[in-house]
């Protein structure tokens, strides 16, 4: 009897060992899940491959090449020759380069605020319920659908040329200033008028922001006796400040990149490529002149990288300044 008692645990242990275990090590399900995950990842990479190839061949590759060319003497016909920082030294000493910087800054400082003010003003009008609201929204947005195309710039140049619509309208009021496109001091304002005319995109964004402002805030302000101006300053602007920041950031970057309208309105190819007396010599226009008309790709690459650095600095300043005037909802940061 004692012997039976002695061997019972051994038989119980043997019985336990003979039972098949169903733990993770003996289950084929994790391996199948891993294979399915690899197949899904492969499918995702295959769908992304056109974008990846385009990014490497059309964006990352050219950027890396231009960074190398910025430190070389390269004219499209001869092999690039390393010259270090000579392109940057020549660029900073060039009076036409400094003039292009001034023209570009003037365009950004004048054109961007006026465009945003026009977009916000029209958005405030369209936010009110009225008849034909959908038609007015479409009509005001229509110019932005055309974009800054060459055809629009050609038409714009004709409108502001001598003895055209603007010139004749000025003469009706006794102003004989001539066409804006022939005046080095006025031609830049024709570009500002063009960019303001195409305020549809920021207008739609402002309109979406205005729709998100709670009506209860205006009702409470009415009860407290606040006028429309005080409501706009203390309610509307703080509530749409994130949208305003987005539009300021986007339109500022776009203003630094202006090219086609400045080149076409200024006169196009030839000795008058960027306006009379370089009146529309914005930064990108002078970059084009150096790169494609003077065949100085090394210098043009250096100018392009300086533009990238400048836009990055302006963007950083805007993001730093938003802490002072952009108001997010609690938890929105």
UniProtKB/TrEMBL annotation:
Residues in ABC transmembrane type-1 domain copies: 101-318
Residue ranges crossing the lipid bilayer per the database entry: 45-71, 105-126, 138-159, 186-210, 231-250, 302-320
Superkingdom to which the source organism belongs: Bacteria
Compartmental location: Cell membrane
Record's keyword terms, sorted: Cell membrane, Membrane, Transmembrane, Transmembrane helix, Transport
Residue ranges, compositional bias (Low complexity): 20-34
Annotated InterPro entries: ABC_transporter_permease, MetI-like, MetI-like_sf
Main location: membrane
Record membrane topology: Multi-pass membrane protein
GTP-binding in keyword set: no
Region ranges (Disordered): 1-36
GO CC terms, sorted: plasma membrane
Keyword flag Membrane: yes
Biological processes, Gene Ontology terms: transmembrane transport
Family designation: Belongs to the binding-protein-dependent transport system permease family.
The protein's name: ABC transporter permease
Species whose genome carries this gene: Streptomyces cyaneogriseus subsp. noncyanogenus
